[in-house]
Amino acid sequence: MLEPEKMIWTPRAWLTDPATRGWRSDVLLKINGRGEWASIESNTPREAAAARGAQCLNEALLPSPVNTHSHAFQRAFAGLSERRVGDRDDFWSWRDRMYQVALAISPEQLKSIASQLYVELLRGGYTHVCEFHYVHHDVDGSPFHHPFAMTDALIDAACEVGIGLTVLPVLYERAGFAAPALRDDQRRFATNVEFVISLQDYVNARGIANETPLNAGVAIHSLRAAKPDSIRSLAERVRGPIHIHVAEQTGEIDDCLASTGLRPVEWLAAQGLLDPRWHLVHATHVTQQEIHAVSKAGAGVVLCPTTEANLGDGLTDVAAWFDAGVASSIGSDSHVNRDWREELRLLEYGQRLQRRQRNVIAAPQQFDGSTAARAFSMAVDAGAAAAGLLCWGLRVGARADALCVNHHQAALLGVPDSHTLDALVFSSPAAPFDAVMVAGRWVLGANDDASRAGVVSGQANSIERDFAAAMRRLHRSN
Ligand SMILES: [Zn+2]
Q1: Residue 331 and residue 345 in contact, taking contact as beta carbons nearer than 8 Å
Q2: How far, rounded to the nearest angstrom, does the alpha carbon of residue 299 sit from its chain's CA centroid?
Q3: How many Å apart are CA 102 and CA 144, to the nearest integer?
Q4: How far is the CA of 386 from the centre of ligand 1 (A)?
């Protein structure tokens, strides 16, 4: 459905067109009937914009990085795995406990959990999220009467809240390289190539004429969890992005070496599979040769700093990925954090702690050497392909998504305009974004401005109530 054209004006905006990348002043942005940026003009005085009918804002505008890796149901587990009861806790013992939530959650509970999560992601500055979606079946492993009931829960949550959504149905076939099938506690995840493709088609069909932006790619859980023939078959048949968990844990590298003689990324490259559709989630434990192979293939990586820290995964060489020109997007994955500023801060802090240096991600010849600006720019640019979107950011042709920066917040008081991004990322905590636009609609509204009353404004309380009720039911026995 086409909306009437409209215009907004801002004193400052971070534009993402390669020719004009960075801050520009007095910016007039026109939104077409499809909810895309139709034109963007800098140096237009406020009075002239108002005379042309623009909605004039007081805040600076930022583009939003896509959140390229989410398991929405794990929001129900955030903060509930932070105790050690034995000699050692690690990723694998965390996973066993996470499965208890995966085995219990119903479609109705998933809808409540995801709605709350998506409101939090909007406040944290994400306007689009990629769901790496693998909990499909009923608790006993049999298909639901509507086989895509869990997917509908995610789509309904995104539509209620107004956040853009890319669903990535996951191919999940076996428990390990040498295992013929899944473990019993993985029964809700079982899929094959046909299921994944039919679910992708289902989501894309629902996305047509949907007011909330909705599309689909596919995912492969990991090399250990899918058969090589199935991976090849899926890659041959699908269009759109292909995501895969890869090289997150050293144990997985050892298993892959034992099974194939190659490391995971090395195996994908040797099979000739990698191309620009592929987005390698985590890619933590990799060699320089593997980084080179990903770069040569034009594939991307998805970095999830707060989850990787929470799970004790290890640190990847972020500067090496950036310097190799590999599109590096960010995801909040298990949702122990829901704000991209914290992801970017931890992305850099991990490198500082490891190297005992500062501003490791920065490049002095780019963005005046700003670490935050380089990481932010990378995250914004890299998210589009991972979400199957052709164009993204504050540039003509992209979807009209934007974040209003609350300039009254403590982190920005007295900070020179040129350091806004530096302070937003490195002077924490930064305030939530209180006005957020998706596809030309205000989905979160500014408190003091009725003209920006968001889609979510009247519903936030009921979404919180439903979330709390779902949490109580899921964790009743704990
Ligand atoms: Zn994941």
Answers
A1: no
A2: 17
A3: 15
A4: 14
Q: Give the model's pLDDT for residue 18.
A: 87
Other Cβ atoms closer than 10 A to 346: 18
375 and 427 share one domain: no
Q: Are 266 and 274 in contact (CB under 8 A)?
A: no
Domain of residue 411, CATH code: 2.30.40.10
Alpha-carbon dihedral 420, 424, 429, 430, rounded to 10 degrees: 80
Say if residue 130 is in the same domain as residue 276.
Answer: yes
Dist CA 63 CA 119 (whole Å) = 17
**Is 282 tagged catalytic?**
yes
**207 CB burial (10 A radius; 0-12, 13-18, 19+):** middle
Distance from Cα 402 to the centre of ligand 1, integer Å: 26
CA 224 to chain centroid: 23
Please classify residue 39 by burial: count the beta carbons closer than 10 Å to its beta carbon, then call 0-12 exposed, 13-18 middle and 19+ buried: exposed
Distance (angstroms) between ligand 1 centre and the Cα of 7 equals: 38
Q: Which of 128, 136, 245, 282 is catalytic?
A: 282
The predicted pLDDT at position 449 comes to 76
CA distances from 155 to 107, 129, 466 (A): 11, 11, 17
Going from the Cα of 244 to the center of ligand 1, the distance in angstroms, rounded, reads 9
Among the listed residues 317, 333, 422, 434, the single catalytic one is 333
Q: Which amino acid is at 234?
A: L
Cβ-based neighbour number of residue 324 at 10 Å: 17
DSSP-assigned beta bridge partners for residue 165: 129, 214
**Residue 376 burial class via C-beta count within 10 angstroms: exposed 0-12, middle 13-18, buried 19 and up:** buried
Distance 447 CA to ligand 1 centre (A): 34
Stretches where the chain sits below pLDDT 70 are 1-2, 447, 477-478
Q: Is 279 a catalytic residue?
A: no
Same-domain pairing of 192 and 111: yes
State CA 174 to chain mean position distance: 26
d(CA 123, CA 293) in angstroms, rounded, equals: 36
- What DSSP assignment string belongs to 307-348? HHHHTT-----HHHHHHTT--EEE--BT-S---HHHHHHHHH
The residue segments making up the domain with residue 438 are 6-63+400-455
Confidence at residue 1, expressed as pLDDT on a 0 to 100 scale: 54
What domain count does the chain have?
2
